[in-house]
Write a structure and sequence with these properties.
With 345 residues, this protein is of the alpha/beta class. The strands form 7 sheets. A 3-stranded antiparallel β-sheet has the order 7-16-8. It has 13 helices and 16 strands. The protein is 36% helix and 20% strand.
């Protein structure tokens, strides 16, 4: 069987010179002899999480192959078939529509890499949120707001939006239509990084900025919600057809830097979760425990994504970021590994 361990870890018995009963040491490498085949999403904002999980499995003794970069639907088919074992890049409920029929017979979700970490929405410079009392996209219909955010003189507020072909471009177009914003907001669809670099430059000059973003992302490390910028509402929740099954996930409470609580984001908020083959998990209780325990603060991922955006994006750079994170979170990390070792007994 593909997932059978080739070697079983042995418990080492140690003696203590005292009247105490014998103490049994944990098997530090319960995965020894087992090969693991991970996959990885194609967006680089998920590379850090993948590398961190891979490092953990290696410390547990598993022989972890380099990840296969797969498009979402291909991964979900592959993990159900057992062609790959897991990935760390599941976004739910956002990915629900991409699962093959009877997916949960063969695979499942484990733990929460970041609960409610898959955010999308609109942000505005905090200073100008307060100056113009901006709460939602509807406020960009007001003449004084449009004028303040109009950098090119076309009479519309400029929105740093998504390039053509991105999924978010379709949602922004939907919002412009259903909220009657076409005459009030100009979505700028240039290359995203260039558009955001321009927005950050304007922010540093004290000018108003208005942009779409998602998380995890470097943008909200550079421009921190609650300090530099604020998430704003859509006027009401009017989902696209594809969003309707997750309508209740388009309004969210507890979002740091939101102008209201709860906030109507207009996008589905997803949990980032590990997805794995069930047979693989059943054969590897240490991995199951590790997957269920591991969680990463969103701000840490945003910080690492910023380093990548500034040029530290090679595999060697990402491995160094992982080592730095583990060093800074040693107690938590060692706790996860020891819990995994105990689960393998």
């Amino acid at each position: 069987m593909k997932y059978m361990n080739k070697a079983l870890g042995l418990l080492a018995c140690i003696s203590i010179v005292s009247t105490a009963a014998p103490v049994f040491a944990l098997n530090m490498t319960p995965g020894e002899g087992t090969t693991v085949e991970p996959a990885r999403a194609t967006w680089n904002t998920g590379f850090f999480q993948e590398a961190l999980v891979r490092k953990g499995l290696e410390e547990l003794g598993y022989d972890v192959k380099n990840p296969k970069d797969l498009q979402n639907p291909i991964f979900y088919k592959s993990v159900a078939l057992g062609d790959v074992d897991y990935w760390t890049n599941g976004w739910f409920p956002n990915h629900d529509s991409q699962l093959p029929k009877d997916f949960y017979d063969k695979a499942d979700k484990y733990g929460y890499v970041v609960k409610s970490g898959g955010l999308q929405g609109y942000l505005v410079s905090k200073k100008h949120v307060e100056k113009y009392n901006i709460k939602s996209l509807d406020d960009f219909k007001r003449e004084e707001v449009k004028k303040a955010f109009d950098a090119n003189g076309d009479g519309k507020a400029d929105l740093t939006a998504c390039p053509p072909g991105w999924g978010c471009e379709n949602v922004i177009t939907h919002h412009m239509e259903v909220y009657d914003l076409k005459d009030h907001i100009n979505p700028i669809k240039a290359a995203y990084e260039a558009g955001m670099a321009s927005a950050i430059g304007r922010y540093k000059s004290g000018e108003p900025i208005f942009f779409y973003t998602w998380a995890p992302n470097w943008t909200i490390f550079k421009l921190k919600p609650g300090k530099d910028v604020m998430w704003i509402n859509v006027p009401e929740i009017i989902p696209k057809e594809s969003q309707k099954p997750a309508r209740d996930r388009m309004t969210m409470s507890g979002i740091e830097g939101a102008v209201t609580d709860p906030i109507k984001l207009g996008y589905v908020v997803s949990d980032i979760r590990i997805v794995a083959n069930k047979e693989f998990i059943g054969e590897n209780p240490a991995i199951k425990q590790f997957f269920e325990d591991l969680t990463i603060p969103l701000k840490d991922i945003n910080e690492q994504n910023t380093k990548m955006n500034e040029g530290e994006k090679s595999d060697k750079d990402i491995a160094r970021h992982v080592d730095e994170w583990i060093k800074e979170n040693a107690e938590k990390w060692n706790g996860w590994l020891n819990a995994a070792r105990k689960a393998a007994e």
